[in-house]
Predict the structure.
Amino acid sequence: MKTNEQGPTPIAAQPEAETSPKCGRCGASMVRRQAKNGPHAGKLFWACSTFPKCRQVIEMGSPGGGVISS
Ligand SMILES: [Zn+2]
């Protein structure tokens, strides 16, 4: 059944305002992660939910969400 009603689409799950981006490599949704160690320790970034199958990551904090293209 289709509705032509306009309005905000109720998004289930994710209470955070930020919507998770799609992986540019495999199309899977991405999950928010925090670097535990290394030079970027403590930094938040988006990682592909299929990690380690796909290691696509998107840096957080840059305006508009900086995509790391490889
Ligand atoms: Zn991916």
